[in-house]
Amino acid sequence: MPYTKADSQLHQIFEAYKQRTIKRVFFVACGGSSALMYPSKYFLDCESKHITAEVFSSNEFIHRNPQSLNEHSLVILCSHKGKTPETTEAAKFAKSKGALTVSLMYVEHAPLADESDFIVNYSWISAGHMEPHPEIMNYAILYKLSMGLLYIKEGNRKYEKLLSSLDNLGGVFEKVMKQHEEQVKAYAEQYKDEKIIYTMASGANYGMAYSFAICILMEMQWIHSHAIHAGEFFHGPFEILDKDVPFILLMGLDETRPLEERALAFLEQYGEKRIVIDAKTFDLTGIDEEVKGYLAPLVINFVLRMLALALSKARNHPLETRRYMFKVPY
Amino acid sequence: MPYTKADSQLHQIFEAYKQRTIKRVFFVACGGSSALMYPSKYFLDCESKHITAEVFSSNEFIHRNPQSLNEHSLVILCSHKGKTPETTEAAKFAKSKGALTVSLMYVEHAPLADESDFIVNYSWISAGHMEPHPEIMNYAILYKLSMGLLYIKEGNRKYEKLLSSLDNLGGVFEKVMKQHEEQVKAYAEQYKDEKIIYTMASGANYGMAYSFAICILMEMQWIHSHAIHAGEFFHGPFEILDKDVPFILLMGLDETRPLEERALAFLEQYGEKRIVIDAKTFDLTGIDEEVKGYLAPLVINFVLRMLALALSKARNHPLETRRYMFKVPY
């Protein structure tokens, strides 16, 4: 892989990691940018002996004002165009507490960059297209930041496995795209008139379910939705299930897969409308066994973005249509 | 206040607190019992300098298998009847990692008790009735456990304010009941035919929104729902809002109130169906200023339980009706 701008930005951040004690990571962003961070929190929860991780929506972070935020904190923020006011404010707030602040954005210059110690620019491409640089897409950068942290601080070797696997992610995406091309169109036709569609997942995949529910279904398609945790499903939400209630179930390869399998069995028995995106059906050649659970959500998300596009076409409701966002004051 | 059984159980737990270093608290439960714990996590996030807190659904906790779970962890669990299999399993798992395990339950003997170092029995009464012992209701016990922890470990004095305030909580409930008696019936009549009702809140109140969505609306009334975080609302979910989409907005008194106020302004401008439960309208005489933000959600929840009962009556759908829970294998 050629040495990219993002690599050079990451190199500087890793040097900064080495120069301070880091006890706690705060992942801070809003909406879809926040959902991006769930897999990295999952990784830190699972593997870090000494560093704890937390995900907060930007404004909640500022107002909750965690006392554990200090010079031993790493705050990772993200805003696609670097202009989300709450996130810029959160970076400023975190810096005022002495934390190391690292912000991801697609653009090169933005208010968020001005308030951050370091930035990383990620690559991005709209739904339904191939990702030309999956190794520097937003999720990949976030894993590099979190796995890189544990590599430096705790000698965790997943970072090396991540790097070699990311080199092969483009190939995986290509195969998954071919595999699902017809399938997502069929799903879109089948579910285009639904008024409500729930999403469900657990572990590293939950963020994908959250993102699809709030950004794709609610925001971009005006379909009622919300993400249900596959474990919580059995403690309340499952009573809503009937033959005519559609669910999108994500099934990953991480340690929590048994929760998703249990949910699947129930959906199969009592529901009739479901879309199951199962990472077990993917050809993941080139992805190291040890990071498959962590990378599966990125591949699942690739399929979800194909589904989003197919749904928007079947419904004649472009993904760009908004009634409030960036249109009215709020 | 008479010295209760719960007080004696708490006394033993506080002695155990003194005998070990506690770096991290895991709140572990399922569904409604998990939602109970959000306010205590909020308190620890806001006020603890050294102790971090995390809420996990029981099965997610076991499978995620956090590396930071060890002999310096306090794991607080809850199950009303002490028979939730995932939670019992989680207690066993936490003990095997050397953590101090404390379990709340309504019943005296249960599988969960057998797997825990300590238990606390809370008082409980069904929706729409007065709470005869609010100072030992589940939320109060959880605050005693978390505020007591910071009292012992960091000299945080909120615990003292909590105790004196809890003595007056019954009086607050009585006044709030009278204040809302007619209002909840009117709301129930107005919204009884809705197919979907969202809930929304932030900070210490978010757990109440989550609980009402998954336990009352989805589980007990079979109404589509989910809890939206008031900050996240503006980053996707708000696009679903239209004049005919009902929201229940909870407004508390904690530091995140500006988020709820911003959501209210938007709901008022673009929606027409909303139930607002605002703690600012409550007579909180006897509740110490310093813990009002923490105790407001308990009072909000009292109103929500009145609303649940009113809704169930208006819809002729008893709160006890289930199609799957405890009826079919899952």
What this model shows, in words?
The structure is a homodimer of 330-residue chains. With 330 residues, chain A is α/β, with parallel strands linked by helices. Chain A has two domains: 5-164, Rossmann fold, CATH 3.40.50.10490; 169-314, Glucose-6-phosphate isomerase like protein, domain 1 (Rossmann fold, 3-Layer(aba) Sandwich). Chain A contains twelve helices and nine strands. Chain A has helices at 5-18, 31-35, 38-47, 58-64, 85-96, 111-114, 138-154, 158-166, 169-191, 206-221, 257-270, 292-314, and strands at residues 24-29, 52-57, 73-78, 100-105, 118-121, 198-201, 227-229, 247-251, 274-278. In chain A, helix 1 (5-18) packs parallel to helix 7, helix 4 packs parallel to helix 5 (85-96) and helix 7 (138-154) runs antiparallel to helix 8 (158-166). Chain A is globular, with a radius of gyration of 19 Å. The termini of chain A are far apart. Chains A and B meet through helix 2, helix 3, strand 2, helix 4 and helix 10 of A and helix 2, helix 3, strand 2, helix 4 and helix 10 of B.
Q: pLDDT under 50 segments of chain A (min length 5)?
A: none
Mean pLDDT of chain A: 97
Strand order of the largest sheet of chain A: 2-1-3-4-5
Number of domains of chain A: 2
Helices and strands of chain A, in N-to-C order?
HEHHEHEHEHEHHHEHEEHEH
Taken as a percent bin, the fraction of beta residues of chain A is 5-15%
How many runs of DSSP E, i.e. beta strands of chain A?
9
Largest interface: A-B, 65 and 65 residues
Question: Per CATH, what is the topology of the largest domain in chain A?
Answer: Rossmann fold
